[in-house]
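User: Just a sanity check before I run the rest of the batch. Below are the structure tokens for the first item. I only need the designed sequence back.
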């Protein structure tokens, strides 16, 4: 019969800080969210993310169906993809689902219930699945008629997940980090010094 698919939502909070997590998530899933944010922060330049984004904006991560308790490490790759999409402006491919545990070193670990998860995605109309490489043997448990309709992408690192999951086009550019307009500072967008800074200099 298969399991159920989960949707991951993320949004930036201007003037906020840290990570807000909602949606009846257990401790393991919350740890995955914190690990995903920390990994992207520590590898920001690799993925084209201004590091200032993590200091200037809070992030709200939400998993709908809040009345249903959810836990486990399997959503690690999906959470990472959602946060990376938010920070880069590159959308997650609409026809793609994914599962896998992540580590702070950027590895993707295998998870259980592959057959049930893939069947759930297939039933929802998904035809492209990202799975941990170490779950390759579990693919044989999926009915042949279902496998024939799927493109299965095997990954072993988070960077491979993002290459496979995110579209190349920057469709929704994230807002620029706030400019520090202290006295004497110039706005890099205009090259001009703000009036407040000029008044401070004149004194």
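Assistant: Here's the designed sequence for the first item:
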């Amino acid at each position: 019969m298969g399991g159920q698919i989960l949707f991951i939502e993320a949004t930036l909070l201007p003037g906020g800080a840290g990570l807000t997590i909602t949606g009846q998530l257990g401790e393991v899933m919350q740890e995955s969210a914190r690990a995903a944010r920390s990994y992207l922060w520590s590898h920001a330049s690799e993925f084209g993310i201004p590091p200032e984004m993590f200091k200037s904006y809070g992030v709200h991560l939400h998993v709908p169906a809040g009345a249903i308790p959810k836990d486990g490490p399997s959503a690690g790759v999906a959470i990472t993809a959602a946060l990376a999409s938010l920070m880069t402006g590159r959308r997650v491919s609409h026809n793609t689902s994914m599962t896998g545990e992540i580590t702070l070193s950027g590895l993707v670990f295998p998870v259980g219930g592959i057959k049930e998860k893939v069947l759930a995605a297939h039933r929802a109309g998904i035809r492209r699945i990202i799975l941990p490489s170490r779950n390759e043997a579990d693919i044989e448990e999926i009915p042949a008629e279902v496998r024939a309709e799927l493109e299965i992408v095997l990954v072993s690192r988070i960077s491979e997940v993002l290459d496979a999951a995110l579209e190349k086009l920057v469709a929704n550019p994230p807002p620029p980090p706030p400019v520090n307009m202290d006295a004497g500072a110039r706005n890099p967008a205009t090259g001009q010094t703000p009036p407040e800074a000029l008044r401070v200099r004149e004194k």
